[in-house]
Amino acid sequence: MNRDPSEQFAKLGAAQRRTEEIYICLRDRICLLHYPPGTKLSESQLAKEFEVSRTPIRRALLRLELEHLAERRQGLQTVVTSFDFESVRDVYVIRMILEANLGSLSPAERWWERADQLRDIRERCQELLESRDLAKLGELHLRLQEAHADIIVNIRAREIVMQLYFQIARIWLSMVPRMNWEEEIELLIREIDDSLDAMHKRDIRALGQIRKEAIEHNITRMRAIMADSAG
């Protein structure tokens, strides 16, 4: 069934919405490296922070476990998982296949009218050429992914695309400090410009190809960083 994600969220009950909000907050903290690998996720501390019982915290942590962002260890302790490129190489392959076939994933009617989201992200990316803010870069990268995913109205397809992104988002962000900062920002801006051009032309195939090539370029740069580290 094709539904707008915001409409789907609005139909949840109050308790479900709160659990979803907590899950999204914890997921983003993990993917933006606010919670590095090995960080303990205490049910009691999180329940106190979010002012809820342990039940919604436990449910949110379970979702993080299912998505391989957290794991339960001995003593019923939940911690943020570690990550490395080789262990999720297949995830990159699947992402590229999905992006290249974006037009087959139930794009929204008049999907090209969502270009304003990308323009806003581009403007904020431009600011990063003057200020090295890794957390902000991670947030903008996530916003860009969400903006592209919002084109997909098939809720299950959108969830899969986002879940795959969250499994690997930390890897690129963790390597950015060893990359050329200005080059990374300029590449992101160029990707947005190319995407805006494809949206202006209403060419969904071109938009998908741009996303696929952006992932390929990220992989190439990350492999170069790993090779230098190994050398």
UniProtKB/TrEMBL annotation:
Gene3D superfamilies: GntR ligand-binding domain-like, Winged helix-like DNA-binding domain superfamily/Winged helix DNA-binding domain. Residues 16-83 form the HTH gntR-type domain. Keywords: DNA-binding, Transcription, Transcription regulation. It comes from the Bacteria. The keyword Cell membrane does not apply. Pfam families: GntR (PF00392). InterPro entries: TF_FadR/GntR_C, Tscrpt_reg_HTH_GntR, WH-like_DNA-bd_sf, WH_DNA-bd_sf. This is HTH gntR-type domain-containing protein. It comes from Litchfieldella qijiaojingensis.
